[in-house]
Amino acid sequence: MSEDGQSCYSGSLDGSVRCWKMPDLNVDPYDNYEHGTPTSVAIVTTDPNQVVVSFDNGETLLYDLNTEQSIAALETQTKDGHDCSVRLWMLDNRTCVQEITAHRKKHDEAIHDVAFHPSQPFIASAGADALAKIFV
């Protein structure tokens, strides 16, 4: 953090250092945001210039970091934002190729985090049901 509290610095394994402007704590950055509040962000490993963002309203969008624009919506058949499933997507044609019912809903929450092993076919998820699961 900078001395004045206006900037935050982060370092990365690629050797880069970034400076982030701290938001005004008196302003809600998600007021009138068209997609709701982001609940999850994942970098697309095959294209690090793209991220997948999930929102509390159930939408999941693919973004291009260079243009800072949404590329596509990843369509699901959920009625709300938390159906307790982990989904694997083929981003080339934007289709869901596998859906894993992973956790039970608790207090209107379901899955808190998903992680992928970088070289092995393992997926881990952590849920509001206090369970951590590993899928092979």
From TrEMBL:
InterPro entries noted in UniProt: WD40/YVTN_repeat-like_dom_sf, WD40_repeat_dom_sf, WD40_rpt, WD_repeat_striatin
Record flagged with keyword Transmembrane: no
Signal peptide: none
WD repeat residue intervals: 104-136
Protein name: Striatin
Annotated PANTHER family: STRIATIN, STRIATIN-4
Listed SMART domains: WD40
One Pfam assignment: WD40
Keyword Nucleus: no
Keywords attached to this entry: WD repeat
UniProt organism field: Goodea atripinnis
